[in-house]
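Supplementary Note 2. Why include the ligand at all?

Several targets in our set were suspected to adopt different conformations when bound, so apo predictions alone were not considered sufficient. For every target with a known small-molecule partner we therefore ran a joint prediction. The input for 4'-deoxy-4'-aminopyridoxal-5'-phosphate is given below.
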Amino acid sequence: MARINSRDTDLRERAQKVIPNGMYGHQSVARLPEGYPQFFSRGEGAYLWDVDGNRYLDFMCGYGPNLFGYANAQVDAAYFDRARRGDALTGPGEEMVQLAEAMVGLVSHADWAMFCKNGTDATTMALMTARSHTRKSTIVLAKGAYHGAAPWCTPVLNGVTPADRAGQIFCEYNDVESLEAAVREAGDDLAAIFASPIKHDVLVDQQSPTLAYAKRARELCDERGALLIVDDVRAGLRLARDSSWSLVGVEPDLSTWGKAIANGHPLSALLGSDKCRQAAGEIFVTGSYWFASAAMAASLATLTLVRETDYLERTIALGERLRKGLDEAAARHGFGLRQTGPAQLPLIMFEDDPDAAIGYRWNAALMARGVYFHPWHNMFMSAAMTLGDIDFALEAADEAFKAAKA
Ligand code: PMP
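The joint prediction is reproduced in token form.
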């Protein structure tokens, strides 16, 4: 199926001249199969249109922000209404207090909130708050977990010094013994355990946290006076209407949020309990756009949808339908799929595909049929998707299995 891609090709050529490598970061399509468009002209509901006018049912959701659909009418009305009255002013608007109240009302461990723009801002503030609270510096993290792209956490080490990474000890996710060993190694210098709500690393199967791992992380922090941080930037609001570890009954001291909380408008947050309120008040953090009101108005509208709709149950049901349909189609075509993670955050890889060649062919064939899947990053279900959309994706997947075999 030949798609037109002349504008995308032209933009890529121009980008090569004025943007290093033509693109950077997680939205560069350089590591994706051929045929993935780089540039888009619009998004509406569950769909995306590239600059050449080709339409895609989008299972990446902007890498997370699209929870209630692109250009959601309710959220965007709140955003534009506020933006028309001035957005980034010399001080915050009343929305900041309303939003802090709304987040504290929603997330059971939280007694206070601070707002920023990117997930990395929030995770960096969490790190600083933990070090300020404990007056210690070592943090324990899970190997392979993503917490952002600042020097202390970016996955690629060019431009990063050993000093930027000092005071970090790594354990294996869900491995209690390795968590205990890492904490032992920290000695009397443990500031925090940083936990992903689920293991949602790229290129490997996803895992939900075991109760033993989450509980032990809580105990170890309590024994040492360290803080437990859950990084809910990616999974927040997609697993629960609360911190994601509420599902295992473990309350963090700090949680970090972003992506879905304003349904695509730039906003992130650090939430914390009373225990670390003072320390959070003692760090100096700020940004020119952090106090702007329009994204906060969008977030208030998003949280209304979170509280008042069955979006969570629907995204789970849609994800389960997709997962079952894909398993059936794969079996018909003689493939084994490894579908891991919660149904609403699916990661789909192939058995017996060590270099991901089958996965790349299958994803490319889906893309050619107007379905945007990802071969090695977890995907996201949008509440704007319908059962009809899932059927459309399954029909495309069926054809794509044939192409992947060829
Ligand atoms: N933490 C997690 C778990 C994430 O998935 C991300 C973004 N993918 C971040 C932090 C960083 O967020 P941002 O890209 O908005 O800085």
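The chain has two domains: 6-60+310-405, 73-308. Residues 63, 118-120, 123, 146-148, 196, 231, 233-234, 258 surround 4'-deoxy-4'-aminopyridoxal-5'-phosphate (CB under 6 Å). Comparable summaries for the other entries are listed in the accompanying table.
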